[in-house]
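task queued by scheduler; priority normal; single chain, no ligands, no partner chains; default sampling; output format set to C-alpha cells
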Amino acid sequence: MRAVNLIDRLIVRHVVESLAKAGYSFSIPEDSGNELELTGNVPKTLQALAGVDDERLYVSIGAKPCGWVYFVFGNDGFNVVSDYTTNLETVLASSFLFSKDLEEGKLELAIRQD
C-alpha cells in the first residue's frame, strides 16, 4: 500500500469515528441516484469509501440532514478532507489536528513496503 493511501485511510477513519462518537449517522449517494444509508456504522462507512477517487459523506442527526464532508483520495494524503460544511468544524477539529500531526511527523507510521 502506498503511503498516501495509508494516510488517506487513517484520516478518513479518524473523521468517520469522530462523527460517529458525536452521534451522527451517514449516507453516501449511489450511482442509481439513491443514497446508501450507513447509520453510524464505521466499518461499513469505511468500506463504502474505499476504492473511490472522491466522495461526499452526508451526515445527519436522526432523520435531520445537517452537513457533509467531501473527500478527495490519492493526492498527498494530508488534504483528503477537501471540503465540509462549517457547522461540522468543531467535530472535525480533532481530525484536522491528527492530520497536521501526521504531516509534521509528530506521529510516526510504520509503513511496510512489499
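post-processing summary
- The beta strands are 25-29, 35-39, 54-61, 64-72, 81-84.
- The longest strand covers residues 64-72.
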